[in-house]
Amino acid sequence: MTNEFYRISGPTKRENVSRVLVRLYGEGLDRFFNRDEEIRTFECLSNKGQGPKLLGQFANGRIEEFIHARVCPISD
């Protein structure tokens, strides 16, 4: 709801990763979401190839693989 997202681009030594998404968690949302459970679920899905890869995490956010995508309109 109040997360901030940043797409970071640049050269990297990691294969196939030239853009990443940095997610900064919104303040106070931990009252509604269990962050530990959320990151475990995200990591599990990531490991199974269901969504972006989890590349790293830190106290107030995480770094994910950036996936070029578009919103699917309701007409589709």
Explain briefly what this protein structure is:
The chain is α+β, with helices and mostly antiparallel strands.
**Can you tell me the number of structural domains?**
1
Question: Unreliable segments (pLDDT under 50, ≥5 consecutive)?
Answer: none
Determine the structural class based on helices, strands and strand pairing: alpha+beta
Shape type: globular
The spatial strand order of the largest sheet comes to 1-2-4-3
Distance between the termini: 25 Å
SSE order, one letter for each helix or strand: EEHEE
Number of helices: 1
C-alpha-based Rg, rounded = 14 Å
Largest sheet: 4 strands, antiparallel
The helix content, as a percent range, equals 10-25%
Number of strand elements: 4
Portion in strands: 25-35%
pLDDT averaged residue by residue = 83
Written description of the protein model:
One of its GO terms (biological process) is phosphatidylethanolamine biosynthetic process. InterPro entries: Kinase-like_dom_sf. GO terms for molecular function: choline kinase activity; ethanolamine kinase activity. This protein has 76 residues and is of the alpha+beta class. It has one domain (4-65). The chain has one helix spanning 35-47, and strands spanning 4-9, 19-24, 54-58, 61-65. The protein has a 4-stranded antiparallel sheet with strand order 1-2-4-3, covered by helices on one side. The protein is globular, with a radius of gyration of 14 Å.
